[in-house]
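New here. Your pick:
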Amino acid sequence: MTDSKPDAGRARILGMMQGYRDTSLVRAGVELGVFDGLAEAGLDPEVLAKRLDVDARGLTILLNALVATGLMEHDSSEYRLSPAAARYLVSDRPGYVGHLTRILASDWEWDALKLLHEAVRHGGAVVDTHAETPNFRYWEDFAKHATLATGPTAELVADRLAPWLSTRDSVDVLDVACGHGIYGFTLARREPRARVHGLDWDNVVPIARRNAEEMGVGERVDFLIGDMFTTELGGPYDVALITNVLHHFSQEDATTLLKRVGEATKPDGRVVVVGFTVGDQSPDRDPAPHLFSLLMLTWTRAGEVHSERVYREMFAQSGFTRPEIHTVPGTPMRVLIAERA
């Protein structure tokens, strides 16, 4: 006699096998403007198809799939947004997250993750173009679309540094691999004396420059262009920011970068590192950093999410004090702040 009870484990595994379908569904809805098209009222699919200039049959299939996943509602004649879709997937609303499909559902990540089995065999990236490739185009998307998600973390960094910065004679800031630049620009907006020096590739800097202008600090921002391991950093700086960077490298290379930054930092200066960390909990209790490490395995030569113990070792070897570690509410990110010893 067979067991007819549902097997939750089997269902979970089969769901994981098909997860890419949900990803493609959300991305297609965002790219086609489906959620914006239904923002104000429910519509017949024929009417919506004309507005979006797409095939009506194809759109109906997509809408039914969105209903099946709970992002859309449907009656006999019209489709309308679910409350979650109305809140988070309409582009002119405050909670909008659809732009993150360009990052969380990017072709660059998927092309690398498709070869995860080969990355495991070889111990690192097997794709030709990846996170360590000069002028990698993905970083343009990251600089354009990760700004809103960065805000709370950047504000936490500014909050923690503000009392100390108020005592400084100067506030010169180095932002290594600055990307969108929001961390440095947030400091500059809070501290009128701050001058930010952002370092990144020449395809990313124009986006960061535009963000600086939009945040009202453009006149206090300069840029260095090139590789963070070889470009002359200048200085000395009061604050050095290394955000979402060190997990791209082995412990040895990350320590080398920290030492370079330390040499460009004033003796009593601060370094701020932002990123995932692995703690002492079992991976099933804190899954996000371990899943992110998979991307680093497929997307870098030797990167991974480092543990808090490893970070303490790297700071010590680079001439910094034991870091303060701060959590960011609502995210798995950590902020580590240390003083140059």
